Amino acid sequence: MRQNQRVLQTKQKLKDAFITLCEQEGITNVTISNLVKEANLSRGTFYVNYKDINALLEELQAELFANILSEFQTKISDNSIYNEIFVQNSSNDNVYLSFSNVLNYIYNNIRMIRVLVLNAENHEILTKIKSLIEKYFIESVRNNNGHMTDELPEDYARQLLVDCLFSIVIHWIRKREPESPEEVARIIAASRRLAPQNLVVNTTA
Known about the structure:
By secondary structure, the protein is mostly helical. Helices cover 69% and strands 0% of the residues. It has helices at 2-25, 32-39, 43-49, 53-77, 80-87, 100-108, 110-117, 123-143, 154-174, 181-191.
């Protein structure tokens, strides 16, 4: 048990150092030498845990995807996302607060997520997360006897639904001082009630 705990602590030090160096120097400039220096560990310790930098990066990506998947599975299984976004009284923003639980993981790990998700060379993880959102939102709609509007082809309606949520979350992650998960949940809730023409208010007489 102590050995496993020590391994986990060592890996966490390496991951924390990796995130710090990515923020400072860019993901492509991280080397084993500057990584172990930042983590205050030896090269030998690094190689005990990882084959190379890519192996560490792949583990971080796998953890990110697994944790986001877990959050979505929990919310989809109890129908809370469907009820909050598609069913509840739109005048009461408080009903959307439990959706913020899905966003809490992102907020609490935002440094890592910025490095992994916003990296210009890492489109694969973005595509996987977007596909995950689409899968579970559409599954939630169907499980609750809902369907996409008949006013648009289904694939277009689905993309509008997913792209709206995805774009808001990515914009939120990019912000230097991001709002709380609860506030972003309210923004997402409000966005589904507004048509594009309602986003601009003409104040001229």
